[in-house]
Amino acid sequence: MPSPSALTAISAKHQLGESNWQPLSHPGIVNQVFTTNSFVLRIPHRADFALEDTFTERHILPLVQYQVRTPALFVFDSDRDILPVPFSIFSRIPADPLHRAKKVNHQKIAEAIHQVHSLAIQPHPDLDEHPVPELDEYFEVTKKFPDPEQHWIATWLHQLSPINELPYSELFIHGDLHEHNLLIDDNQNPWLIDWGDAGHGDPAVDFAVLPTEHFIPILAEYQKLASPDQTLTARVALNQFLHHLRMAESAQDQNLPDPINPLRNLFKLWQSLPDWQRFNPTKP
Prior knowledge:
alpha+beta, Phosphorylase Kinase, domain 1, Aminoglycoside 3'-phosphotransferase, Chain: A, domain 2, five-stranded antiparallel beta sheet, 39% helix, 15% strand
């Protein structure tokens, strides 16, 4: 946590005219986040991956900020004269995270995601790579759970495994499009933030961490815009399952009650959708 004097020094150095920095209630895993009326200050934790994300975003923002709604980068400070890590200052957008938005226009969100996937961004060392998932790692994760849950999860993973062999067209993707990184303003316009995982990979990745109550209509609207992709739905299903398995693993590691609850909820959701029931395990 930076000291109040460090935050004041940041404002003075960059002539912001505001210094009443307040910590964000949900800063995330990678960054400490502070806000004023006009600015957002993001300070990465000192873990290597957090610093890498900062430089990924510094490279990407000049390439995307005039083509996709995203807050303008006001300052990128890598001097380390005030803080021991580089930090970024963005314009603050009057918008709420997707899960807190009063009204949501799924078509507009789909259009924003399609805009991202249509960008002609060249590969670069600062960008993330999103290769095909290594399913052996996930089969090892299933062993963390006791039976009968372990058998149920492993059966589900076995059933979805063939999807990992399906071909796809690699596109530029956001890479971490969860509910806190998708802001909705009063006009229901989506704003995408936190480009630290941006790179090239399967566009299905950008649907895997969307909130479950939104991803079906967003995916449906997206498929009206994008080139025909007969296997996109299946690839989204696999990536979504892997994401929820990681959530269950984290709950298991923290000894939380009913750690497989994220997977239970995913099972119930897919069971309620006729087109998605086929992705559920044959022996629930």
